[in-house]
Amino acid sequence: MNEPAFDPYLVPGTDLLRNLAGARTQRELAEIKHSLATARALELMDDLPVPDGTVAQLRSIHGFLFQDVYNWAGEIRSYSKSTTPFPPRMITPT
Predict the structure, then answer these.
(1) How far apart are CA 53 and CA 91, in angstroms?
(2) pTM of the model
């Protein structure tokens, strides 16, 4: 029998992303993430960066928005169990 692959972004034995907020369920994480990221988004709106279309800028924005939720915010994930490419048609080159 195959052992499931270890995903360093998940709480061991679950499909819940490791998080700084201490959330223990998907629902709790979603609520906390929404609240914290919304507060950061409001901050970001006060000093919006000029879009440059780079991965570096995307990482910077992600890091800013989710810094209170994930210790890996703004980093490119080194592992994913998903077979769906990210981002699925959400970002198109300019």
Answers:
(1) 9
(2) 0.77
